[in-house]
Amino acid sequence: MPLGTWLKAGASAAALVLATAGAATAATAPSGESSAGESSAARAAAVTLRYDDSRAAGWESAIAAGVASWNANVSNVQLVEAAPGATAEIVIVATTGWPQATLGPVRPGRQVRVELGSQAVDQGYNKTRIAAHELGHSLGLPDTKPGPCSQLMSGSSAGTACTNATPNATERSRVQSAYASAIAALAPADGRVLVDAP
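The structure corresponding to this sequence follows.
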C-alpha cells in the first residue's frame, strides 16, 4: 500500500478517535444551566473527574459539601462520585494524621490521593473547609500560607474559627485556567504531596 494511503487512513482513524472521545466527555458531563448561567453546551465541555470516598467514613457530608462548592464555582472541571468499583481520579481516605493531598491538577485517567486527617479536626478545624481545601490541591492549587480566611487555600493558617469552604476569585480563576483547553489537559500534575499541618 502506498505511503499516501497509509497517511490518509491514519488521519481518518485519529479524527474518529478524537470525535468519539469528545462525544464521550460530553455525555458524562452535567447538563443544564449552572449557577453562573452557563449553557449546557459550555457545561458539556467541562473535564469530568471522578472521586472515590469509600474509605473516608465519617467525612461523607464534608466531602459532598466540598465537592458542591467546587462544582458551583468552576465550570471547566466538574467532580462526580465514582460508581462503586470504578476507577477514580481522586481517591479520598480518612486517616488519623494531618490532612494532605497530591498536588494536581489531576487529569482524566490519572490519579491523586487526598487524606482527610482527624488530627486537624481534633485541633478544632472545620471538616468541610478541610475537604474543600484538599480537593483544591487535587485541582492544582498550592497552599497560600499564611493567608486570610477568605482564601480557601490558606488552610490552617486562617485559624480554627474559619469555616470558609468557598474558593475566592483568584483560586477559581487558576482552576479554570488549569482545565481550560485540551492542550492544558495534557499537562502533567505536579505530584508533590502537601501536608496541611499548622
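The first helix runs from residue 3 to 28.
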